[in-house]
C-alpha cells in the first residue's frame, strides 16, 4: 500500500516540477513551487521523517511562497523565456 | 544557448543518478549510518537528555554547534536583506486616503496632511482590497496560529517541531496580518527596531546559554552543568537547556521572516507593501 502512495506522490513531484518550468505566468510558477514543496512534505512524512516534513510544510510551502509572491508583485507577471 | 543548458542539466542529472546508485538502499539496516551512529543516539537520547523526540535532542544537544550556526545563517540572511533592500531616503509623491464613511478616495500630495485624521485612512496606491470578511477572518485566525506556534516550540521535545518550525509559524501569523490588512498595520505591531532587536536576541540567547555553560566550568553548550543554577539533576537540565536554545532559535527565525517579508514586499521602503 505504502509503495503505491510513494510512486503516486513521486510522479506528482515530477509533473509539478516540469509544469513550474514550462508555465509562463510567474504567479502560477510560485504557486506550483508551493505545491511542489507540499508534495515533498508528503514524501518526507511517508518516509517517516516527520520533523523534516514539518519544516518543509512551514518553510517551503508556507513562507517561501509568500516571499515569491511578494517579489513577483514588484515585477512583470509574464516570463520572457 | 538553450540546448547547451539542457545538455549541462542532462549531464549533471546523469552524474547524480550514477552517484545515487552507490548509496545504500532506503532503510537498509546494514548501511554505515545505521550500524554505528543512529543506534547510539536512539539508545542513549532518553537516558542522556530526557527528550523523547530524538531529532530534537540531536539537533539541539548532540549537534548543538550546527544548530547554533544555522541560526546565525538565518540572522545573516536577515541582515543581508536589510543591507541590500532597505532604502533610507523615502521620496513620496503623495499618498492615497479613503474617507471611511463614504469610500471617497483622495490623492494628497502634501505629506502629513491627513496622516492622523480620524475620518480618513491611508490606503496603498497599487492594490486596494477592502474586504471586511477577509480582515475579520484573519483577525480570528491569527491568535490561534500564534498559539499553535507556541505549542510547536514548547512541545518540540515530545512531538515533531521545535524552534525553526514554531518561529516560522509565528512569523507567518504576523505576515498574514500584514497581507490581510496592510503593511503599516503589521509594522505598528512589530516595528523595524523590534525586528532587528529580536533577531539579534535569539542568537544571543543561544550563544549566551552556551557561554553560561562555559562560565560554570564545563564545555560550550554542555547543558548538563546548568544543574548547578537550575536546581535539578543534570539530565533534566539538559532538557531545559534544549528548551532555552529552541526559544532563542524561534525568536530569531520569527523576526527574520517578518523582516524579509517587509523588505521584499515594500521594495525596502517600509511604506506601502503587498
Task: Write a structural description.
The complex is a heterodimer of chains A (81) and B (274). With 81 residues, chain A is mainly α. Chain A has one domain. Chain A has helices at residues 2-22, 26-46, 50-72. In chain A, α1 runs antiparallel to α2 and α2 packs antiparallel against α3. Chain A is flat and about 40 Å long. The model of chain A has no long low-confidence stretch (mean pLDDT 88). In chain B, α2 (32-49) packs across α3 (54-62), α4 runs antiparallel to α8 (192-215) and α5 packs antiparallel against α6. Chain B is mainly α. In chain B, β1 and β2 (105-108) form a beta hairpin. Chain B has helices at 2-20, 32-49, 54-62, 64-85, 132-154, 163-180, 183-189, 192-215, 227-230, 234-265, and strands at 95-99, 105-108, 120-123. Chain B has a domain at 39-89 and 129-265. Chain B is built from 10 helices and 3 strands. The chains are: A mainly alpha (81), B mainly alpha (274). At the A-B interface, α3 of A face α6 and α10 of B.
Explain briefly what this protein structure is.
The complex is a heterodimer of chains A (81) and B (274). By secondary structure, chain A is an all-alpha fold. Chain A contains 3 helices and no strands.
Amino acid at each position: 500500500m505504502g509503495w503505491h502512495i510513494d510512486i503516486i506522490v513521486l510522479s506528482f513531484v515530477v509533473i509539478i516540477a516540469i509544469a513550474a518550468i514550462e508555465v509562463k505566468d510567474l504567479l502560477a510558477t510560485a504557486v506550483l513551487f508551493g505545491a511542489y514543496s507540499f508534495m515533498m512534505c508528503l514524501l518526507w512524512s511517508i518516509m517517516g521523517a516527520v520533523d523534516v516534513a514539518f519544516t518543509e510544510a512551514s518553510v517551503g510551502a508556507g513562507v517561501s511562497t509568500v516571499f515569491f509572491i511578494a517579489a513577483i508583485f514588484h515585477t512583470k507577471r509574464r516570463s520572457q523565456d | 544557448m538553450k540546448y547547451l543548458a539542457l545538455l549541462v542539466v542532462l549531464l549533471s542529472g546523469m552524474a547524480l543518478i550514477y552517484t545515487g546508485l552507490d548509496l545504500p538502499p532506503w532503510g537498509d539496516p546494514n548501511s554505515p549510518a545505521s550500524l554505528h551512529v543512529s543506534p547510539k543516539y536512539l539508545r542513549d537520547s532518553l537516558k542522556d537528555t530526557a527528550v523523547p523526540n530524538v531529532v530534537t535532542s540531536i539537533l539541539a544537544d548532540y549537534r548543538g554547534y550546527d544548530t547554533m550556526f544555522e541560526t546565525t545563517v538565518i540572522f545573516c540572511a536577515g541582515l543581508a536583506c536589510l543591507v541590500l533592500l532597505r532604502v533610507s531616503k523615502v521620496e513620496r509623491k503623495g499618498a492615497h486616503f479613503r474617507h471611511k464613511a463614504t469610500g471617497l478616495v483622495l490623492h494628497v500630495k502634501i505629506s502629513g496632511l491627513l496622516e492622523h485624521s480620524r475620518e480618513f485612512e491611508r490606503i496603498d496606491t497599487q492594490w486596494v482590497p477592502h474586504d471586511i470578511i477577509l480582515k475579520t477572518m484573519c483577525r480570528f485566525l491569527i491568535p490561534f496560529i500564534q498559539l499553535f506556534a507556541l505549542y510547536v516550540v514548547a512541545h518540540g521535545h515530545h512531538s515533531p517541531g521545535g524552534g525553526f518550525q514554531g518561529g516560522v509559524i509565528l512569523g507567518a501569523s504576523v505576515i498574514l496580518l500584514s497581507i490581510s490588512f496592510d503593511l503599516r498595520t503589521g509594522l505598528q505591531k512589530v516595528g523595524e527596531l523590534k525586528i532587528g532587536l529580536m533577531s539579534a536576541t535569539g542568537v544571543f540567547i543561544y550563544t549566551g546559554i552556551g557561554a553560561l555553560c562555559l562560565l560554570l566550568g564545563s564545555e560550550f553548550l554542555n547543558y548538563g552543568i546548568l544543574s548547578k543554577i537550575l536546581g535539578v539533576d543534570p539530565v533534566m537540565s539538559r532538557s531545559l537547556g534544549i528548551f532555552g536554545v529552541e526559544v532563542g532559535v524561534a525568536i530569531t527565525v520569527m523576526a527574520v521572516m517578518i523582516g524579509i517579508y517587509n523588505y521584499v514586499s515594500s521594495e525596502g521602503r517600509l511604506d506601502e507593501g503587498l
